[in-house]
Every structure is written in C-alpha cells, then in structure tokens.
Design a protein that fits this description.
By secondary structure, the protein is α/β, with parallel strands linked by helices. The protein has 2 domains: 1-61, no CATH class; 63-285, 2-enoyl-CoA Hydratase, Chain A, domain 1 (Alpha-Beta Complex). It has 9 helices and 10 strands. Strands 3, 4, 5, 6, 7, 8, 9 and 10 form an 8-stranded mixed sheet that branches. The chain has a two-stranded antiparallel sheet with strand order 1-2. Helix 4 (144-160) runs parallel beside helix 5. It is globular, with a radius of gyration of 19 Å. The N and C termini lie far apart (51 Å). 39% of the residues are buried.
C-alpha cells in the first residue's frame, strides 16, 4: 500500500497524519485504509463495522453495490433478479480498445454482469424492490442492460404494489452504446410514471457520484430525494462547468449539502441511519 498523501477532492489540502496514524510497515495490503478527507488511518475491520464511514470525520467511503445491500436490507432477505443480463456490443464500438474487452475486464473486476444489481428484499420487515449501481463497473455507466434492469425493478414494484428504492452511483450514460444508452433515460422515466399514477412510492438515494444521464433522468425523480453526506450530484462535473462559464463556483458546489440548501433534495442521511430512515419513509408513503 502506498503511503503517499492522497489529494483531497473536498478541501484545498489534506492534514498531515499524526505519527500514531502512519501505516505500519510490513502490513498486508488492504489491512488499513487512509481517509481521503482527514487522513486518519483506519483498520479495515473497524471501517467495515462502521459501514465504511470514517470514525473521525464522518467521510463516507464509496462501497460496492452488494455491500450496500448488506448494510440496508434485512439479513438474508435480498433475492437478486435479472443477474445474468449482459450487454451486447451492437455498435462494435472501439476507442483505445474494443468495448467487448472493457466489458470482460469490468466483469472480472467486479464479479457482476453489468453496473447495476437489483432484487426483492425487506427493510425492517417491509417489502421493497431495491437496486444499486456498481461504480466499479465502468464508472456505473448506464447502458441497455442497466436501463432494462431499472425498468424491470419499477415494473416489479408496480406489480407487487411495494416501494421502489434505487441507490445511485454513476458517471452517466455509457458512451460505448451511443444512442441506445441515451434511450434508457426515456425508457426508465416512462415506467416510473406508471408508479406515480397508482401511488407506489419511489425513493431515490444519491451517493458519490451521481452525474450525467442518470442524474438527468430517474435519479432526480424520486418522491423522496435522499443523499449521503458530501455526495457529488450533478449533470456535468464542477470543473467542466467552471471552465464553460469562466466563473468561480460557490463552495461545495454540487455537493449534497449545497443541493439541500437550494431545495434540490429532501434530506441528507448518514449511512448508519439510512436503514431506519428508509423504513419510516416507506411507512409514511405506502398504503
């Protein structure tokens, strides 16, 4: 593991760790984690016990889609659906390497067939159709498979008349699928509208990062919009916006705290409190 000081994405600088915080020598890879916000060194087992939230500053580490399910749903209740859906290289897309090679690499890295997992579960005994993006799979980008799985999640919620919950962590539409990827924005929104017509609640949980075509479609269409602390949420990144308008952006621009202050989301909920909060919201909204 490198002991080099990481660049902090949230603040201008990162404080130097105390001597007692330095990573011991000859420790196996993955035994310690350094918080990118406060530079505290945390034992991996302690971090996992805290739902991957820094014990010093509350920074929320990015986590896998399956780990998120383990934290939120009742133990043993999650039944995955549509797990074997795989993308096809319809456009024969090639940039620095073929799209099919990128898919194989992402599948080997994550053990998933695409960037979204979904299924049926319960949260404190309440049934729910739930899904989560996997950012490690090509940046959580939305292609035809992700769009189809999200659509099927909404359709199951409609059929079972139970709430739908989606955790977002995405860089946006998948460029390797071109227009086919952009079509998923309209497809998911159309199915979501059917939930609204019959009063089935949809709860959207925004995590770091939620951007691009996902943010521009169903991610920002929840009946309740929740975000984790300091999550980056927006269509284009702040650096691109600043360069485009040639102006300095406000502090914490596009972070969840900024969005809450400006009425774009309803609540910021720390990860350790999310399970109970979702249960209360489902009780209030679902009849």
């Amino acid at each position: 593991m490198s002991v080099e000081e990481p660049r902090d994405r949230r603040t201008p600088g990162v404080k130097e760790p105390r001597d007692s915080q330095k990573i011991p020598l000859n420790v196996p890879e993955g035994f310690w984690q350094r918080c990118p916000s406060c530079a505290t060194i945390i034992r991996q087992t302690a971090l996992e016990a805290q739902a991957h939230v820094c014990i010093d500053c509350g920074h929320h580490f990015r986590i896998s889609a399956m780990r998120r399910m383990e934290i939120v749903v009742d133990e043993g209740s999650f039944v995955e659906r549509d797990a074997k859906l795989r993308a096809k290289d319809t456009l024969k897309f090639f940039d620095s390497k073929p799209y099919k090679d990128r898919l194989r690499a992402a599948e080997a890295k994550t053990g998933l067939c695409d960037a979204f997992i979904s299924g049926s579960a319960t949260i404190l005994g309440k049934p729910v159709e739930i899904g989560s993006f996997e950012f490690a799979f090509m940046g959580g980008s939305m292609g035809t498979v992700v769009g189809e799985k999200v659509t099927r999640l909404f359709e199951r919620a409609l059929k079972n008349h139970c709430p739908a919950i989606v955790f977002h962590a995405s860089g946006g539409a998948r460029m390797q699928e071109g227009l086919l990827s952009l079509m998923q924005m309209a497809k998911t929104i159309n199915t979501l509208q059917k939930l609204r017509e019959v009063g089935v609640p949809y709860i959207s949980v925004l995590t770091d990062p939620t951007t691009g075509g996902v943010a521009a479609s169903f991610a920002m269409q929840g009946d309740v919009q929740i975000a984790e602390p300091s999550a980056l949420v927006g269509f284009a990144g702040p650096r691109v916006i600043a360069q485009t308008i040639n102006q300095q952006l406000p502090p914490n621009f596009q972070r969840s705290e900024f969005l809450l202050e400006h009425g774009m989301i309803d609540k910021i909920v720390p990860r350790n409190d999310l399970r109970e909060y979702l249960s209360r919201i489902m009780t209030m909204l679902h009849r």
